[in-house]
């Protein structure tokens, strides 16, 4: 499987963001990936603290999802991207990842479990947390686990996804810049790959607010493709044979003595 991770920055203009998504999927599709992964919050950027993203939120049959479906069908690729989805609380939507197949069918929706109440920010003031349950989807022969940004700091979620069959962890993000934050981002991405002997594909927003550094990492912690700070995309090929070989030589998943069942 070939995975493209896209690096860009969304804005508060939803129409402009839909046009951006259409263009970026088309550009990435030229390299013939099977799946294109866009960052978190591609439908609209996060509101500044004290304001709300509620007015921007849409249902799963809204314009943003329609844009993803159209792009997926037009280019014959699966697409993963982040949006704000309406919830039962009209003031606090979900932070949702949408996965759409190359045929335009909705493969899955993951509502972010761990809200970013850290480093002086409180995401839970604006958003509703999703149910504590791993979400995995199937694209071709690969089982893919979905997680978002701050989820990366909670290894129990990645382990639950792998226990549910995930061979690739897809991590769209809007990882805020700050002292040591870039170091945390790259270290945690590598750790999640190594400890779970799986691939990790991370697509991050960049620009003035966010760190960029999108990348695809293999089960040994090797970066197969990586972006710096600029807009664009990178593509990597993941291999079932490589995954099986690493897990044979390093059977850490089999050697576990602790087992945690998600609540």
From TrEMBL:
Write out the entry's keywords from A to Z: Hydrolase
**Per its UniProt entry, which superkingdom is the organism in?**
Bacteria
GO MF terms listed in the record are: hydrolase activity
Q: Which PROSITE patterns match?
A: CN_HYDROLASE (PS50263), UPF0012 (PS01227)
Residues forming the CN hydrolase domain are 1-240
Instruction: Write down the Gene3D superfamilies for this protein, in alphabetical order.
Output: Carbon-nitrogen hydrolase
The entry assigns this protein to a family as follows: Belongs to the carbon-nitrogen hydrolase superfamily. NIT1/NIT2 family.
What the entry lists under PANTHER family is as follows: DEAMINATED GLUTATHIONE AMIDASE, NITRILASE-RELATED
| Name listed for the protein in its UniProt record | Putative amidohydrolase
């Amino acid at each position: 499987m070939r995975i493209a991770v896209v690096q860009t920055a969304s804005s508060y203009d939803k129409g402009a963001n839909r046009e951006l998504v259409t263009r970026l999927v088309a550009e990435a599709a030229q390299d013939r990936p099977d799946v294109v992964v866009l960052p978190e919050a591609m439908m609209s950027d996060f509101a500044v603290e004290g304001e709300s993203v509620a007015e921007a939120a849409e249902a799963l049959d809204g314009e943003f999802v329609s844009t993803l479906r159209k792009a997926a069908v037009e280019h014959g690729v699966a697409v993963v991207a982040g949006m704000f989805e309406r919830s039962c609380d009209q003031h606090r939507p979900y932070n949702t990842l949408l996965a759409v197949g190359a045929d335009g069918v909705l493969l899955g929706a993951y509502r972010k479990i761990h809200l970013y109440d850290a480093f002086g920010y409180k995401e839970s003031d604006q958003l509703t947390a999703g149910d504590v349950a791993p979400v995995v989807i199937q694209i071709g022969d690969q089982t893919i686990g979905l997680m978002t940004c701050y989820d990366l700091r909670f290894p129990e979620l990645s382990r639950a996804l792998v226990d549910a069959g995930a061979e690739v962890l897809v991590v769209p993000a809007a990882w805020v810049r700050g002292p040591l934050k870039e170091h945390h981002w790259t270290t945690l991405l590598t750790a999640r790959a190594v400890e779970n002997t799986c691939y990790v594909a991370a697509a991050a927003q960049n620009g003035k607010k966010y760190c960029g550094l999108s990348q695809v990492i293999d089960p040994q912690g090797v970066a197969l493709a990586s972006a710096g700070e600029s807009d664009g995309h990178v593509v990597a090929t993941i291999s079932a044979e490589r995954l099986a070989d690493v897990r044979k030589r390093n059977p850490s998943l089999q050697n576990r003595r602790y087992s945690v069942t998600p609540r």
